[in-house]
Design goal:
- 2 copies of one chain form a homodimer.
- The first copy, chain A, is mainly alpha-helical.
- Chain A has 2 domains: about 80 residues, Winged helix-like DNA-binding domain superfamily/Winged helix DNA-binding domain (Arc Repressor Mutant, subunit A, Orthogonal Bundle), CATH 1.10.10.10; about 150 residues, Up-down Bundle (Four Helix Bundle (Hemerythrin (Met), subunit A)), CATH 1.20.120.530.
- Chain A contains 11 helices and 2 strands, in the order ααααββααααααα.
- In chain A, strands 1-2 form a two-stranded antiparallel ribbon.
- In chain A, α2 packs across α4 and α7 packs across α9.
- At the A-B interface, α4, α5 and α8 of A face α4, α5 and α8 of B.
- Chain B binds a DNA duplex through α4.
DNA sequence: TCCCATAGGATTGTATGATAGTATTATCGT
DNA sequence: ACGATAATACTATCATACAATCCTATGGGA
């Protein structure tokens, strides 16, 4: 029963099977709300009444609520009892914590990449880095962040650790806005590229210790920029 | 309006305010299903029909579905389109990945603990370690795991990094069963305590590098035991 | 004028019932 | 024994309803 499939796929890289096109509507709902938050359509601390989300998304309360449950456990929103969801704030302390964790995990990603990457994943990473460099000259912050995400995705891919990928994704989703704005700090983009250059060299040279160090350093610098912004924009609210 | 409260609390350590007793029913539902999985009431790969869960928990489908969304994003279950949720399997490769991440994060926790812990948190950790040692002689695996969780909780508490705590919690929830069974491997409990002893010594001596190394080593050993079990129990299904 | 309390509105928390769509199983004819 | 079709069992989604609770506004009293 498998023979035919094998034959059909013999000259193919990614098989053509439609990957469960039964995309449940609720996934779109999650995406919609998530990106509304990321884009700043809702501000930090703002309430998200279910009814409003129903209108915005055009689906029933059932689906909106299910989406909220997921966003809640991603940490993007907080749900206050009998008050409903609000966009989660990120305090400077929390941001620092997140960046500390990211540093460790991206360090690990580098080590694993060196140990496990093959020609394909290595090539993909180089390509992504090239595109990242050109994206950094763009003015649109979302283009920059997207390019950077793709770069990291290649890194993770090559590292071949599923949990690592998911964890980093989760952490990043909580600081999307921060990442976009911190890349707008004058000079930060170029500096960022310089740091990643070091990273790439170490990665391709197979120097695990240097790669990890470069990753940690890069995250630390990004953290500094981001936390600066945070401190400035809400010096002592609460 | 606050004065009275302040007066009332002046001689109190933990204030008595009932911390939002409005615990939504749905939280209990999540806990219920989660522990049913952890306890082995449902086996890996087994389907969890909504209706059955309604009967088990005594709540409506609405709540069950919301709970499922949360468990899904915690990675405890997979939801197949039009087939519903099944208990997520953990392959040896995934387990390896999870343990690699854990190693990094627990290493970080140690470093942060040394940098940030105060007398209270240090004392709590020592106490938790003492109880852990005695719990290890118990035959009940859940008692052992619980004691260990409390120990880690103290460590995290002292490290003062929220994201770190949440991330580790998430990872651990995916391998609860594994952790319980791997502690039953003959000799593993004692060995585990020995490793943690090293960890404690380094922590209390303030030797960050040694503490991190001990943490990494401990997780690596645990990983080995756990993955062994996994390989044995599903050598090549699929 | 200012404070307090009560009433009313808004929103969440939870349940129920309904319908359509899809995957799995059972059935049946050949 | 095999393939097609019918029956079944779920999920996916919606609409509706009602109690509980929070917030606000209104109005009375000092």
């Amino acid at each position: 029963m498998d023979e035919r499939v094998v034959k059909a796929n013999v000259a193919v890289e990614h098989d053509f099977r439609v990957s469960r096109l039964a995309a449940p509507l609720r996934h779109s709902v999650v995406d919609s709300i998530r990106s509304a938050i990321a884009v700043g359509r809702f501000k930090v601390g703002e309430r998200l009444p279910e009814r409003g989300l129903c209108e915005m998304t055009g689906v029933s309360r059932t689906l909106v609520r299910e989406a909220l449950r997921q966003l809640e456990s991603e940490g993007l929103i907080h749900v206050l009892p009998h008050r409903g969801p609000v966009v989660a704030a990120v305090t400077p302390e929390q941001a620092e914590g997140i960046y500390q964790v990211r540093a460790q995990l991206e360090g690990l990603a580098c080590e694993l990449f060196i140990a496990k990457a093959n020609d394909a994943t290595r090539k993909a990473l180089k390509e992504a880095f090239k595109q990242l460099k050109s994206a950094m000259s763009s003015n649109d912050p979302s283009i920059r962040v997207n390019a950077k995400n793709r770069f990291y995705q290649c890194l993770i891919e090559g590292a071949g650790n599923e949990a690592l990928g998911q964890t980093l994704h989760l952490l990043n989703s909580r600081i999307t806005v921060l990442r976009a704005t911190s890349l707008q700090v004058p000079g930060r983009a170029k500096e960022s590229i310089r740091e990643l250059n070091d990273l790439m060299e170490a990665l391709l040279a197979g120097d695990a210790a240097a790669a990890r160090a470069a990753a940690v350093r890069h995250v630390a610098m990004a953290a500094e920029a981001a936390i600066d912004i945070l401190r400035r924009e809400h010096p002592a609210d609460k």
